[in-house]
Design brief:
- InterPro entries: ACAD10_11_N, AGP_Transferase, Aminoglycoside_PTrfase, Kinase-like_dom_sf.
- A five-stranded antiparallel beta sheet has the order 1-2-3-5-4, sandwiched between helices. A two-stranded antiparallel ribbon has the order 6-9.
- It has 364 residues and is α+β, with helices and mostly antiparallel strands.
- It is 41% helix and 13% strand.
Length: 364
């Protein structure tokens, strides 16, 4: 993140990937070549991304992005990468909503061609609010925008969630039901407990994360509400914008059935995460952007559903993010990029705000 050297994202050789991709592409589109294959500098630490152009007489040059399941040798952030699930989710959203999502071209479930399953989609031109350095820092295009431009982007982004939640028939999204017992929220939280157990297997536990789980039980909503298709990683860093209008909604690997507020809490808190980092560095950040009260009001006006129990859902978002951050930190330890501190909670970049949420003082 902004306060530490960026950890490695892959152990794969980009040139070897490019060669194998060209070979595979010829099986799907005879005579085609993969040109200009690059791994973006912003490549994530979950699924990997390759960018390339297809050279072929029919169709003409086409810009593409390839999502490749994470390299198991790279100490993966998540225990599994179901590319078929992501592909089906993208197609479902494209077929059943008016959300702008990239058009998916091919799914390859056989791991042999590139070493892991992947899918290819058309690449959408535009700009994305960066994570490194965060868009909340001075100098980013979003920070330099006017208040009216940021308000336009905020309204359009909340509109994405409203339309997604309202437009996808639940029956069509049954494949995104999480395993386990209980309602959709209980299954979602149970899955996060399992993820945390996987992260700390053989390593130091996090007293802060465990306290946050305990606090969730105390705040548990009396009526979680009916589940809807949740985007999962619902944040502006996963949207491509043309100017200040969304033109592509990306990264569906965390999609699941859950109450609407799971997405809303993630959207609100993930902005606060970057804003808090920025404020801690002495900059002003963007305190009036994606404010919790405004996001709730916008969403209610668009859907008729007034968000409930948002103290629970923002805490849940901070907790989920903390588990990811702990895994990323242990990944850095694995690659000898950082040392293990005496207090494992300090490996969580936002341990201060998470602790404040557990104590009930963060939103004061």
């Amino acid at each position: 993140m902004a306060t530490a050297p960026r950890p490695r994202t892959s152990t794969r050789d980009p040139e070897e990937l490019a060669r194998r991709l060209t070979t595979w592409l010829g099986t799907r589109l005879p005579g085609a070549k993969a040109a200009g294959v690059t791994v973006p500098a912003s490549n994530g630490m979950s699924s990997e991304t390759l960018l390339f152009d297809i050279e072929h007489p029919r169709p003409p040059l086409r810009s593409c992005a390839l999502r490749l399941a994470a390299d198991p040798a790279a100490y993966t952030v998540f225990p599994e990468y179901d590319m078929t699930r992501q592909y089906r989710t993208l197609k479902l959203v494209a077929d059943r909503t008016d959300l702008p999502v990239p058009r998916v071209l091919w799914l390859e479930e056989d791991p042999d061609p590139l070493g892991a399953p992947f899918f290819v989609m058309e690449r959408v031109a535009g700009r994305v609010p960066p994570d490194v350095m965060p868009y909340t820092y001075e100098g980013s295009w979003l920070h330099a925008a006017s208040d009216a431009e940021r308000e336009h982007l905020e309204a359009a982004t909340v509109g994405l969630l409203a339309r997604l939640h309202d437009q996808v028939p639940l029956d069509d999204a049954e494949f995104l039901t999480l395993p386990g017992e209980g309602d959709a929220l209980r299954r979602h939280v149970t899955a996060q407990r399992a993820y945390y157990s996987w992260v700390i297997d053989g390593l130091a536990r996090s007293p802060l994360i465990e306290a946050a789980f305990d606090r969730l039980e105390q705040l548990w909503p009396q009526e979680p509400g009916a589940p809807v298709l949740n985007w999962g990683d619902a944040r502006i860093g996963n949207v491509v914008y043309d100017g200040f209008d969304p033109v592509a909604v990306l990264d569906w690997e965390m999609a699941a059935l859950a109450p609407r507020e799971v997405d809303l809490g993630w959207t609100v808190y993930l902005h606060r995460f970057f804003h808090d980092l920025t404020a801690a560095s002495g900059q002003r950040g963007l305190p009036d952007f994606l404010r919790r009260d405004r996001v709730e009001a916008r969403y209610a006006a668009l859907t008729g559903h007034t968000p409930r129990d948002m103290e629970f859902y923002t805490l849940y978002a901070a907790l989920r993010h903390a588990i990811v951050m702990l895994r990323v930190a242990y990944r850095q330890v694995h690659f000898a990029e950082v040392a293990v501190p005496a207090d494992p909670d300090t490996l969580i970049l936002h341990h201060g705000s998470l602790r404040a949420m557990v104590q009930g003082s963060y939103w004061d």
